[in-house]
Amino acid sequence: MGLIIDFSDLMLLGMAFPNLVGCYILSNELAGDLKDYWARLTSGQMPTYEKMATADGPSDQG
What confidence tens digit (pLDDT) does each residue in 18-33 have? Predict the structure, then answer.
């Protein structure tokens, strides 16, 4: 039974390792995209839910 658990642990490591490498490689790109998104959101270039809800006005379609 111990051999099966060791094998399953190695398989989990084998699946996790490429994901960790990919996260490390993409971390700089993700940081740049997040910085760009946050700048656009705080400057008002992107509509927020509150702005969209007040612009449309109340909708009584029921």
Answer: 999 999 999 999 999 9
